[in-house]
Amino acid sequence: MKRAQKERLNLAQDILVSLVALGGVMMIAVAAPNALQLLDPLFKRYKKRTLKPSYIRQKFLDLEEKGLIRFNEKGDTMRIALTERGREKILEFQVDQMEVDIPLHWDGKWRLVIFDIPEKKKNEREIFRQKLKELEFEMIQDSVWRHKYPCHKEIEFLTHLYGIYPYVDLVEGKILKL
User: Fold this and answer.
1) What's the confidence (pLDDT) of residue 6?
2) What percentage of the chain carries pLDDT values higher than 90?
3) Of 64, 67, 85, 104, which one is least surrounded by beta carbons within 10 A?
């Protein structure tokens, strides 16, 4: 993907993430000529040419058209709110960027993810397996995967996101040589 295309994709993502950081709602004075300057800290990493006010306005309109944000105008104030669909999109971004933190030293413990996800949740099971691969888990069997490093928060997040938490166990321990 070309760099300019990547920047455009990231701009939409960064707008959504910024809304989350602001509690899901942003208020902008409609009459203020430089209202978008509120977002300056967010956009510092982008090239100046991609950040024309008309371009940013269009990104907001695109996000509204996709149902990710909602505009409400009251008097001279514009309220921009994240929709439920927007919150789901944020979760997708978090999943895409998820990594297991690797400490300086291994504690000698293995983390085993064991699951028996029913056939009615086949899609979720396949997505979960794919994410385990991306997180560099090692497959022992189709439904048993292991990792050397702490991954509780990642597994908890994924299982709740995909609605499979009742079917997944995480076991942590040392392997004893007999």
Assistant:
1) 43
2) 36
3) 104
